[in-house]
Structures are given as structure tokens and as C-alpha cells.
Amino acid sequence: MIFQQKLTHWRHSLKAAYCDTKEWMEAQQYLEVDQSGQPRRSQISKRNNWKRPESGLVKCNYDGSFYNINTPAQAGWLIRDSMGVFKGAGQFKTRKPHNALESELQALLGAMMVCWSQRHTKVIFEGDNANVINLAKRRTKNIDTT
Fold first, then answer.
1. Cystine design at 62: which of 4, 58, 91, 111 (Cβ 3.0–4.6 Å)?
2. CA dist 91 to 16, 21, 32, 104, Å?
3. CA distances from 11 to 18, 48, 60, 88, 137 (A)
4. Residue-level pLDDT at 138
5. Residue bearing the bigger pLDDT, 11 or 36
6. What CA–CA distance (Å, rounded) separates 146 from 134?
7. Could you say which architecture CATH assigns to the domain 56-141?
């Protein structure tokens, strides 16, 4: 795979996506402290269940990270078909975003470019940032010009 003028073997991308997913899943588990002060995993787990797209469509889940304006953000995506079959995944560093919204939009743009380059024409993009969703559905307008 060539992305941003860098040749990356697909196995490296797959391994990075796997590690990122594992790290994310571990981070989502809430840790409590018991009476002895030792952390323990809570039995309460808030997890969203992934829903398959309709037949003939693929779903691309994407996410972007934002640390500060001086640090390149990270973005990643995962593509699955209507049967839930893995069709691809990847990650990349984005430009230095000015805020979390810009980072999420860069992640969406990168995911769109990958889907287009892989000839996926009927794609549902799914992210976790409400501002991106509201902008895409024209519920709000972004007037920040800085």
C-alpha cells in the first residue's frame, strides 16, 4: 500500500490496526480500586455494538486523535462489508490540526480517499464525533476561521 508517498506492506498496516484496536478496547474498560487499593476491572461495561450495513454496502469506521496544535494527529479506519467481513484497515499521521474537530475531519477525509482508491462506491462512514456528523448533515455550520 502506498499512502502519503510511503510504501507500507499490508501486513504492517493490519498489525498496527490490530494493536490500536486492542489498546482502544483495553482503554475502554473502566478500572475501579478495591479496598486494598488494587485496581480491578469493573463489571459495568458500556460498549456499542457494531451494526452491519445493508447488502451491497460497506461500512468504514474512522477515528482521529488530537493532542495539541504542535503535534501531528493520528487517524485510523476499518472497512467491513454487509456480512461483517474485514475489507481493510489502516492508520496514518495527519497534519497538525488546530482542534479535535479538524483532526476528525482529516481522519474522515483519509478514510474517504482510501475507500475511493479501493473502488468502494457505496460506503457508510461512521465516526464518533457529533460535530462531524452535524456538519455532514448540515445541522450546524462551522464558522471558526482560525
1. 111
2. 8, 11, 31, 13
3. 10, 27, 19, 11, 35
4. 78
5. 11
6. 20
7. 2-Layer Sandwich (3.30)
